[in-house]
Design a protein that fits this description.
This protein is about 60% helix and about 0% strand. It is mainly α. The protein has a domain of about 80 residues. The longest helix is centred in the C-terminal third of the chain and has 17 residues.
């Protein structure tokens, strides 16, 4: 649950952010949305935490690169992709159907 203090902090810190645009497949976008929903956080916060974790593994400063992916980098991306398949909600096929199912379950709970 996000507190009022956290919301204010987020609004203030938003002014100090920059925007990154990444094109992803519709399937990946859906899985990201579902994983963020399952974690009860915004998509921005979910992706930001994943990026923070990935970058922190590099250490304080990222090494200079030539822009060419190494075999190790490709293997690491494959491991991350494989582990993301086990995230909550990643195995379902239709986000709209999941939302309908959850709404129906909630309606039954309220009716009881």
């Amino acid at each position: 649950m996000v507190t009022c203090r956290q919301e204010v902090h987020e609004l203030v810190s938003t002014a100090r952010r920059t925007r990154i645009t990444v094109d992803v497949s519709p399937d990946l976008q859906r899985r990201i949305k579902q994983a963020a929903l399952s974690a009860d956080v915004s998509i921005r916060r979910f992706v930001e935490s994943l990026l923070e974790e990935a970058v922190s593994e590099l250490g304080e400063e990222a090494p200079e690169t030539s822009g060419i992916l190494s075999v190790e980098s490709v293997a690491r991306m494959d491991r991350i992709r494989e582990s993301s398949r086990h995230w909550p909600g990643a195995g379902t096929t239709d986000a709209a159907e999941d939302i309908r199912r959850m709404r129906d379950e909630r309606s039954l709970e309220i009716a009881e």
